[in-house]
Write a structure and sequence with these properties.
By secondary structure, the chain is mainly β. The chain has no helices and 29 strands.
């Protein structure tokens, strides 16, 4: 079945369609209907304009491309499986939730609470303009060339691989497990607190009080900028190029840097013998 160059504004306008193409259609109008393609399967949606709520709920096996989901298109994709989204503009709040096997490619996103509780994702070439709690409780994702601006990202997530990305986000990776970030810039305050098995390789890390209360934190060949009071109460293995502004009460492990502006180790708080500090110049004033 094909639906081309049509406008739909009714409640459940294309409910339950199967093996269909929906092309250059508008989901908009005075009836203000919801759930346009709920329970659909085997659909291809191309070059459509989505201005109504909840269009893709309980959808299986869908390809969505070249389409615009406006800010009125809230909670667009929930409880879906096997979904490919490419070259789309996604603006509505809570755009993806409780979905499985999702590919998101070359999209621009301005969606608060974007991607919650999803499993098995591939994200490539995506720009997130603004979001709070993006990637919340995501399990299993490979992410590359992500450009993101937001807050509280990747909280309670697990099994995540991120590469070649630029993340401008505070409170990232809180309570995360088994996350690896490579060749990326991670900028924000209070990064990685309470994480477990968080690993950053060839990254630039920017912001105050990073990596506190971490378990098995690993930094390899990283740069830290403006990072004061780092590694508090964390078990850590870190090799840092250049300066760490300050290190405070690491719990255990090894921290290696060219220089550390200030080292704070309080005997009443931690056992200093459990952490090796390898640094040519502690108390350095280098820029």
């Amino acid at each position: 079945m094909e639906y081309k160059n049509e406008t739909f504004d009714m409640e459940r306008a294309l409910y339950g369609i199967t093996d269909s193409v929906v092309e250059n259609c508008r989901f908009d109008g005075p009836q203000d209907g919801e759930s346009a393609m709920k329970e659909a399967s085997g659909i291809v949606v191309r070059d459509c304009f989505m201005n109504l709520r909840y269009p893709f709920w309980h959808v299986t096996d869908a390809k969505i491309s070249g389409s615009t989901l406006t800010e009125n298109c809230r909670a667009a994709l929930w409880y879906d499986r096997n979904i490919e989204i490419e070259d789309c503009r996604i603006n509505g709040i809570k755009a993806l939730r409780e979905c499985e096997n999702v590919s998101l490619k070359n999209c621009v996103v301005d969606s608060p609470e974007f991607i919650w509780k999803c499993r098995n994702m591939t994200v490539s070439g995506v720009e997130i303009l603004g979001s709070e709690y993006p990637f919340f409780e995501v399990e299993g994702a490979k992410i590359s060339n992500l450009k993101m601006k937001g807050k509280y990202s990747f909280q309670y997530c697990s099994g995540i691989e991120i590469s070649d990305s630029n993340l401008d986000t505070k409170d990232a990776f809180w309570h995360s497990k088994n996350v690896t970030v490579r060749n990326s810039v991670v900028k924000g305050e209070y990064l990685g607190w309470y994480s477990e098995n968080l690993k950053l390789v060839d990254c630039t890390i920017i912001g105050t009080q990073p990596f506190c209360y971490c378990k098995n934190l690993v930094l390899e060949n990283c740069v830290m900028e403006g990072c004061d009071l780092s590694f508090e109460r964390s078990s850590v293995s870190a090799v840092v190029k250049g300066k760490i502004d300050s290190v405070k009460n690491p719990l255990s492990g090894r921290i290696e840097a060219d220089c550390i502006g200030k080292l704070i180790v309080e005997d009443s708080v931690v056992d200093k013998a459990k952490t090796d500090i390898v640094c040519a110049d502690i108390g350095c004033q280098c820029a």
